[in-house]
């Protein structure tokens, strides 16, 4: 008799995968997006289920909301866009200062009796007023250009959800799992699972319901998630978002989560393989 456990929900997991606490590059260990080189997964393109289409349809408005968002948090916007007022002021001051310096040099040429000096002597009030005006115009155009580029970047990234929704297919990966270790996540108190795919890597699964229980003061071990001998991971091919993760076959024994003192994968690794040998995983857990 097969046991099937669904893992991915549109709420907790999807939001964390889209916007993890730490950036993917900051993870201390490398996770592969779709199995990695020499991956131990069987990969096929299959039709999207109605449930997966519904989840993706829910993400499209969220993507549109983020495209229109003016959220200035560090995770959502680069510094030169987030701090546009300060950048605008610096740019305007730099151009104004440069033009004033040119005006001063030109004014000093009056003593030499040059034609330029005579021209400056006649028009200096207008030239002086033009310096801050030109600085302001330059800084404003510069800020507008950066903002337009950032919006285009957001559209190129988040528009992938719309492409996936229209395509109606998913990338399905099937993993035969050989071993399982439950790990206590120290920052939020939930459980994550390291599932052995071969000797050189393991599949990472965050149990989102255990994190919900930890946040509400419950026992994370009471989460209904039970990893089993086969994992079926389904991705949206263009956006790379995880749409579903299921387990089937005989479940692994359920026990308390082990504590570790070393570095663990972040939410960005959920549903992905961790490039770490199983022997290293066991040594990491033994230090907890």
Overview of this protein structure:
With 288 residues, the protein is α+β, with helices and mostly antiparallel strands. It has helices spanning 12-18, 50-68, 79-82, 84-108, 115-167, 208-215, 278-286; strands spanning 5-6, 31-32, 41-47, 169-176, 179-184, 191-196, 202-207, 228-235, 242-251, 273-274. Strand 5 (179-184) and strand 6 (191-196) form a beta hairpin. The protein is elongated.
Structure at a glance:
This protein is α+β, with helices and mostly antiparallel strands and 288 residues long. Helix content is 43%, strand content 20%. Strand 5 and strand 6 form a beta hairpin.
How far the N terminus sits from the C terminus, by CA atoms, comes to: 36 Å
Mean pLDDT: 76
Return the structural class: alpha+beta
Contiguous helical run count: 7
Percent of residues in helices: 40-55%
The gross shape turns out to be elongated
> How many E strands?
10
Largest sheet: 5 strands, antiparallel
In order across it, which strands form the biggest sheet? 1-9-8-4-3
The SSE string, one letter per element, is EHEEHHHHEEEEHEEEH
Uncertain residue segments:
8-29, 34-38
The gyration radius over C-alpha positions equals: 28 Å
Strand percentage, roughly?
15-25%
